[in-house]
Amino acid sequence: MQSKSILNIMGLEDLAYWPLGVVFGLGFFSGFPLLLTSSTLQAWGADRGLSLVEIGALSWLGLPYLLKWAWAPLLDYYRFSQTHTGRHIWMMMAQVIIVIGLLSIALSSTHLMVWKISALIVVLASATQDLAIDAYRVELLSEREYGLGSALNMMGYRLAMMLSGGVLWVIADQVGWRWAYELSAGVMLFGLVWVALSPRTPWQRSVQAESVSLWRTAWSGLCRHDQVVAWLCLIVVYRLADAVVANLGGVFLLKHCQLSLSVVGVLYKVVGIVATILGALIAGVWLRKTNVKQVLWTGSVLQALSCLPYIGLALGGTTVSLWAVSLTVAAECFCSGIATTALMVVLMRWCDKEHIMTQFAWLTALVAIPRVLLGPLVGQAAETFGWVGLWSGATVCALLSMLLLWGPLRGVKTPTHRAAQ
Q1: Any bridge partners for residue 84, and if so which?
Q2: 209 pLDDT more than 70
Q3: Residue 269: what pLDDT?
Q4: Which of 22, 140, 181, 337 falls between 20 and 30 A from 32, CA-CA?
Q5: Using alpha carbons only, what angle is made at residue 414 by residues 26 and 295, rounded to the nearest 5 degrees?
Q6: Whole-angstrom Cα distance, residue 129 to residue 30?
Q7: What does the pLDDT read at residue 417?
Q8: What are the residue ranges spanned by the domains of the chain?
Q9: Confidence (pLDDT) at 1
Q10: Is 71 helix (H, G, I), strand (E, B) or coil?
């Protein structure tokens, strides 16, 4: 009897490895700018003496991530080629703007308004890059590869966040924020090479010229599934707890736990991101063998449980063990990796291949709503109710998705795009 390899046992023997490797790299260059205009920028704001409300308000710079659906049809329509989708051109143009924007942030550090405008330019370009990368990923992979592809995309995404939100904090602590952002601009230059080496995907349809018509047709495609309102609500609330951590998790460790910038960079960002990658890979393999809703259920439960250690840190005062911090962050990020991978597979399967960019833009904008819009509210909640109240509220938020899965979505099939039917 022929022995089975580990790939046979895990059900991975039929994977196309080069496309998955491309997805991993694109995940890295997609995730790298995110923290540079969110939590890393907020940490710089804390160094500048901004209040918690002002720090939380910096999350509003992420509004283009919510509004990217507005220009998504333009990226679908202007393809720059008669045979290929033109995703590569859009990705490379966005990366050039990101590089220029990061340099502008570094050079305008003494002018607060220019500093914020430069960050907004980076966010606009990053959101555009994400549109092209998300559509390209759905086109490049087969449906059977969506789970592991999402996990590897998140792995690259989180490794980039480890660099932009962990290593960069240490660099900033040693040589200053300006040098850290100039180095970041240099890192993004490698994205141009990676995109140039990636395979082209064929153009699959004839696009209508009118954007309004594209939006209407794309929206009709999303709404043809059962319990569509409940699914859309689930997408919004599923990552509420993660939005709280993303906005003030690092600030909590800096201000309440009184850890240094370097320690937070290593323990919170590096340790946490390694845990996220592990959770994402486990979910990616698991999704090849089980129903997506089972993983969604598990992610909901784990997200609620992962908020409890933060309450313990808040109750413990300013004298905390580094081991306790490490385990708390690792547990939360591990659970986040599982939950996010499951949610991304739902989004990928939901989109019709005729309207990938526009539909995915709408769905991912819904995912980003809590992280972007709740920043000032999260900061106000921390000041009003304290850290214990904030993390208790995050635990309650994590339970909302369980109510939707148990209630209106119980027994309802996961949305699937027409190409998979």
Answers
A1: 202
A2: no
A3: 65
A4: 140
A5: 70
A6: 7
A7: 54
A8: 14-420
A9: 38
A10: coil
Contacts within 8 Å (CB) and 24+ apart, 14-22: 14/144, 15/145, 15/148, 16/141, 16/142, 16/145, 18/199, 19/140, 19/141, 19/145, 19/149, 19/199, 20/141, 20/145, 20/148, 20/149, 20/152, 21/152, 22/140, 22/198, 22/199
Burial class (CB in 10 A: 0-12, 13-18, 19+), 291: exposed
| Angstrom distances, CA of residue 340 to CA of 193, 194, 276, 280, 296 | 28, 25, 9, 8, 9
Phi-psi region of 317 (alpha: psi -120 to 50; beta: other; left: phi over 0): left
d(CA 385, CA 180): 34
Cα angle 77, 78, 82; round to 5: 100
Q: Is the separation of the CB atoms in 153 and 27 below 8 Å?
A: yes
The pair of three-digit structure tokens given for residue 138, joined into one six-digit string: 């759905």
pLDDT tens per residue across span 385-413: 888 888 888 888 888 888 888 888 777 77
Tens of pLDDT, residue by residue over 301-346, are 898 898 898 888 888 776 778 888 888 889 988 998 888 888 888 8
Q: Is the pLDDT of residue 98 over 80?
A: yes
CATH 1.20.1250.20 fits 14-420, yes or no: yes
Tell me if 41 sits within 8 A of 119, measured CB to CB.
yes
Question: Of 251, 261, 311, nearest to 57 (Cα)?
Answer: 251
Look up residue 406 and give its amino acid.
W
Whether this model's pTM surpasses 0.70: no
Instruction: Report which of 250, 355, 363, 351 is spatially closest to residue 310, judged by C-alpha positions.
Output: 250
Distance CA 266, CA 259 (A): 11
